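Design review, sub-item: ligand-bound model
Attendees: FS, YL, KQ
YL presented the inputs for the S-adenosylmethionine complex:
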Amino acid sequence: MAEERRRRATEAFFGRRRGKTLRPQQSAILASLLPSYLVDLDQPPPAHLPDLFDGGVSDVRLEIGFGGGEHLLQEARRNPDTGFIGIEPFVNGMAKLMSALEAAPTGNIRVYNDDATRLLDWLPEASIAGIDLLYPDPWPKKKHWKRRFVNRSNLNRFARVLSPGGVVTFASDIDTYVNWTLLECDSHPAFEWQATSADDWRQPYEGWPGTRYEAKAMREGRVPAYLTFRRR
Ligand SMILES: C[S@@+](CC[C@H](N)C(=O)[O-])C[C@H]1O[C@@H](n2cnc3c(N)ncnc32)[C@H](O)[C@@H]1O
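KQ shared the predicted structure:
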């Protein structure tokens, strides 16, 4: 049982859980706020997933690997009738989001601080309207490609939790990962790439605020691609 838990906790997470030591104030905010935002996987999910949020939302989206939370916060504020579950195992990223939520509490956000595969397996079938996977860890070396979040098992997870017509967005600056994702989704019966012209993958999504990772990639001369897939 313990071995099973260890294996599952890191099934798709190979990154760092901690970076620089948190400042005392950040640690205090994390300790006091995280429990109220955290989704508890030891409890069964509500039969109607929007009930996870106090504020009466009508549907629920996920952001996997939200980094510092800039995109998650912006989307939550742009879409007050949608609940957002943000997933980020990196403690410093979670601390940054909690500091922003301390300054401006936002009722339509919940978070999870471990491997997204665990949350995906907890969610009810067809309960999610959209999944954002923005600049997932690229693992550019071929020997590490098997660590990439996009793979058949995780696309099966996406297919199970998304409602029909639900949307997956995937942004990356690494050509081999973009091509990899196009091939994986093309060979999966549940997903349909939405692009009809080159602009559809060259132009960012509506209201796109950029992300910290993207800004660095662009400074270093890499060009992003923005893919959108629809669950059939
Ligand atoms: C390259 S960073 C991008 C962060 C952010 N989306 C951005 O664009 O600035 C990828 C993030 O995904 C997170 N991550 C990696 N594997 C994950 C997993 N299995 N579940 C959830 N998050 C994961 C990492 O901790 C990291 O913060």
